[in-house]
Amino acid sequence: MWLDGFSDTQATIYTFPACVTSADLAGDGDFRLIVADIGTGQVPSKLKIYKGTSLNSEVNLDDMPTAVAPMYVDSERMPVITVASSDYVYVYKNLRPFFRAVLPPLPVNATERDAWGQYTSVEELCEILQNLQMEHGISSLSLKSQHLLSLGSHERLSFINANKTMTLQRKNLITCMSTLKKARQEEMALTCLVLGTENKELIVLHPETFTPIDEAKLTLTDVPVSISTSGLFDIDYTLTTTLRNGHLVLGRRGWVSPLLNMGKPAIGVVCLDTQIIVALMDSTLNCFNDKGRRLWRLEISGPISCVERIQLKNKNLDMVGVACGQTIYIYSVAGELLDQVKCIENVSTIYFGQYGREMNSMAVITAGGSIHLKILKRTADFTPQLPSEAKSIGGKIQIPKKTKLFVDQTMRERENSIAMHRTFQKYLFHQKLDTARQLVQVLAKKQIPSTLNDTVKLSAQVLGLGPTFKIQVGIYNISSDAHTGLGLFFHWDDKFYQVHPAYIHVPLLTPSSELKFVTKVECVTANGMADVVKVIVVKGTQTLLVAIINMPPSEMTLFE
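and the corresponding structure tokens:
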């Protein structure tokens, strides 16, 4: 079902699903794979671009990336690449640094500032900072305080002495990123960036200036970890957001509405038109409707590393890919197992989308740093392999109530069933009779396909203004065999025309040759009315081909 595009076991890529995507960077229809590599302790973070079967280019990043997304910021056909890192959004155009946007810094807690300025001992300072962390969270502290609390007790004094003059800074770190179309749903339409931050906020950036739009800022109850967008920013939009505490909320312009509490932190979320599929850290795959009601629940055999939407647009089919260990399980939206993809290492990231000119490609990145590209066969058949293991939640199926129109229609059919059946049979017989009459008429006129139709072509041209016309008839042999014994017979209405000659013998018609014949047609009506003349190709007594010529009105009245 899957073809191996290419594999690179020495790629040394370490990333996660939010940092993998694809885009038509050159505007030529050839999609590249974009990977933001978080790097290792010795290898820096890099932005890597894959084209074809190899690495096309790479760009060094200043810090560890959080997410990557392509977007259109102008009328050009080529998108830019945006990379979220720390509190910055880096914009790359033509694979070169183009712009850098930074989120405004956050105010430092007054208690924290006083503690750094008035502490008498290291223990006292750490106690105050730990109380602030327990009360407001680690993200409410400055970077200096967070670094201090992460050190051991024997290292804290040396850190304080070395950073006495260091200014307290509290950055608005980006935790997740997505894109939202501004005014049109077209692929190359203007796009806005949507950011989730450690300050429990959702921020929408202007597509041209990359500055926060104040009226679109939303405040949440916890830190967002993933965002899924739908709609248009200028009209109406919905931001489906997963929080760190396991809650799922819906954000719209100016307000936030809680949708459901999943009970466990989410690993990944797939948002469909009317369904939300969530993979949780308890190794379960859950499906909810757009009202927050659980539809089914599926237990996976091991820890889930990532989840990805697999959308086949040419087949109007939506599926979900779940990575667990060395296997990728593909489920339908009803929880049915459709396919399994085996890998040689544990899978850390999967991405499904267009790569090159193949619409349905899947990039698989393993925990060992290798990358594999798989292409879906065009003849792939996704039928359930086993009976669905998904557990339906909520009891019996909700059946809509019967309307009054439905009840009245049912009663009418019961009371008049015999009369309705007879009426149906009556019209069915009439239709069969009309079809039979049409067939008899076609057979009588000899307008039926014959083997000669595939070998002979007939053309006709009317010459003259009237009342005397000439009809030039051409018969062309398009086969590789010669034809003999053919003739042209003219059929007309005596009230309108006289034709001479009425029959023309066609001599030997050799392959790929054309013969032309001329006959004279005299209009005999006083007012010059027109009719049709039929040209019939005959062979002996058998009619082989019929052509109908619509004669023009005669202009004989001009000379009266």
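(Above: one complete record from the training split.) The radius of gyration is 38 Å.
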